[in-house]
Amino acid sequence: MSSRDAILGRVRRALADVPREESPDDVAVARDYLRTHSPADAVETLAENLADYRALVHRTDTAGLPDLIGRLLAARGSRDVVVPDGFPAEWLPQADAVRWVQDTPEATPDELDRMDSVLTGCALAIAETGTLVLDGSAGQGRRRITLMPDHHICVVRVPEQVVDSVPEALPRLVPTRPLTWISGPSATSDIELDRVEGVHGPRTLEVVLVTR
Amino acid sequence: MSGTYLGMPAFPKAATLSTRNTRMRANLTHATHTIRDKRAAAVRELPDWAQLRAAGAAVKDRTLRHLDHYLEQLEAAVTAAGGTVHWAADAREANRIVTSLVRATGETEVVKVKSMATQEIGLNAALEAAGIRAYETDLAELIVQLGDDLPSHILVPAIHRNRDEIRDIFRERMADWGRPAPEGLTEEPAVLAEAARLHLREKFLRAKVGISGANFMVADTGTLVVVESEGNGRMCLTLPETLISVVGIEKIVPTWQDLEVFLQLLPRSSTAERMNPYTSTWTGTTDGDGPRTFHLVLLDNGRTDTLADTVGRQALRCIRCSACLNVCPVYERAGGHAYGSAYPGPIGAILTPQLRGVTSELDASLPYASSLCGACYEVCPVAIDIPEVLVHLRERVVQGGETTIRGVRTRIRPAKGHAAERAAMRAARWALDHPAAMRTGQRLAARTRRFHPKRLPGPGRAWTASREMPTVPAESFRDWWQRERGGKVTR
Questions:
Q1: B388-411: average pLDDT
Q2: C-alpha dihedral sign at B236, B237, B238, B241
Q3: How far apart are CA A132 and CA A128, in angstroms?
Q4: Domain range spanning residue A45?
Q5: Are B162 and B27 in contact (CB under 8 A)?
Q6: Is A34's pLDDT higher than 50?
Q7: Chain B residues with CB inside 8 Å of A171's CB?
Q8: pLDDT per residue as tens digits for the range B97-152
Q9: What is the CATH number of the domain that holds A182?
Q10: CA B407 → CA B88, B122, B301, distances in Å?
Q11: Contacts of B83 (CB under 8 A, 6+ apart)
Q12: Which string of b and e fits B230-248 if b means at least 16 CB within 10 Å?
């Protein structure tokens, strides 16, 4: 007998007390928790919660976006900046000091490790938890590009990309896409259960909330 | 490699030693009290916490009561998404499967995401025996591995170490494992985190095989979820060409929507955050992004035995948040190592004896590693009634009885060392059935009270080693009642 059959057989014997006619839906799950904790202003709440976990939050409109991005990169002295396919070209600043690097599946981890910054959009942002969700679609790139460089700038279109809560976020996401949920810069609580920012992921996370 | 838990002494013996380790106790008290208050604040932010907790418990119960259905559904979904599913009845089989999968890649190194399941099965030791080096990449796991130590906490395996000890371990041991610690390393947590970043970066860059567990597996979509903070998880899940995930069969949630409950319950309960810094979800493989090969090893290793116990089954709801450890007065004093398994604290005291059976001395002692204060039940985000299961398991230890071991119904004998307790209970039952004898006995005890020893002799000695003998009153309650209210009608 295969281990698969053995384990499934054990499960069925272990559940001898469950009536044969019971279906999964017969086990009641009360979903009387809140769909949203109704933040008065979702964008404001998002900004507060991002900042609370040490993300740097900036605001501008689409007209001011290229200039702001240019200033953020210049402030860090970033030279090599990864930009994924589908990131709107009109959002990129005219910056002579910056080399824009397209992300391709051939790019090795070593090459990505040498990049100074990465620039992406996102699939949505969750206000109550201060979370950005990237799903690898246009303008977001592969999961690794937002991991290796030490500086990540993420553009969120507000208010349309902002949802209140986790229960509101999940139905808008496609489970078959590889998702990365980001809440602040990389951190650890492993030393004396005290939170310290900055381990393996980007140590600086800058979020640009952009209005039309 | 880090040590194993084999041959650990029973809990009271191990705890007698560990409670004398004043540095460890100070480290633990500091860390658990820090997180306790933060967790309470994070939970207070959500007015619907009680409803979320009830829903979390109910979703897990639904899963467990129909686990065969969900396992088959998950297997089909993962396979359809390009993954390969393996089934492991026990630790040995899981280790064999993982070892042969790594061998097939031709690699002799793997990078690991922190995983309780691989800790439970002793995967690192098995890989080492096969000539494969496993690098732990979670900061706390790295501290444990470099220090040739054992994990002592579910979330923060190196919780028993303070910053000075961690600096010393990094200074002395990092060079043996790869890039040495930077010159002039201090005990600043940010500096220590930076040292770990540099030490591990080269390993991530060359890794071809990653090994992980998972916090959740979604049956209807075949999606796996890993919740983490540092980014080491993302490194292991996205850079290697091959990903092998070893996951307990109880980690399933039925639907994508169900994650809305657990992604609220877990971060606030474990690290006291609104959301942990990084959550990764993946479904099979994705062209051009992440590993090209994905293997899922579904692990039983005593879980179906636990499922067979209708009282103990609720332990399988556990989402490994470790909130119960952080509030437990016994854990705070004894430390995690005394529990002798990958799962310390209150949840370990009910999970380990069920996964392994209560047949060893250590496992039979674990249901007693509690004062039954109930703090663990109160903070549990999936409402596991840990005290209820503890009492249930104590009964099994003392009286023996029906249980399931490796899928076979077995009648176990009462554990040794509880003979005096059983004799006392038998005597008590007899006395309660014979009121006259009870009255006589109580009077006799009252009249001889001046001569009662402070410590019991013989088999009772162990009982009074850590307890005061109760003082016998001059008059029993029954006699007092007779004297005061004798013959009167009380209305």
A1: 91
A2: positive
A3: 11
A4: 37-211
A5: yes
A6: yes
A7: 257
A8: 999 999 999 999 999 999 999 999 999 999 999 999 999 999 999 999 999 999 99
A9: 3.40.50.10420
A10: 13, 21, 10
A11: B222, B284, B285, B294, B295, B296
A12: bbbbbbbbbbbebbbbbbb
What pLDDT, in 10s, does the model give residues B254-268? 999 999 999 999 999
Which amino acid type is present at position B29?
T
Per the CB < 8 A criterion, the answer to whether B355 and B315 are in contact is no
Q: What is the pLDDT of residue A55?
A: 96
Let me know if residue A111 belongs to a domain.
Answer: yes
In the A/B pair of chains, how many CB contacts fall below 8 A?
261
Q: Are B235 and A200 within 8 A, CB to CB?
A: yes
CB A146 within 8 A of CB A118: yes
Rounded to whole angstroms, the Cα distance separating B82 from B321 reads 30
Residue in chain B nearest A173 by alpha carbon? B256
- In total, how many domains does chain A have? 1
For B425-473, write each residue's pLDDT tens digit: 888 888 889 988 888 888 888 888 888 888 887 767 777 777 788 888 8
Higher pLDDT, B153 or B488: B153
Q: What is the mean pLDDT of residues B150-173?
A: 94
How confident is the model at residue B10, as a pLDDT? 87
Q: Is A3 contained in some domain? A: no
Facing A24 at nearest CB: one of B69, B137, B189: B69
CB contact under 8 A, B277 and A193: no
Rounded distance, CA A30 to CA B126, Å?
44
Is the residue at A13 inside a domain? no
In a domain, A21, yes or no: no
Chain B residues whose CB is inside 8 A of the A180 CB are 234, 278-280
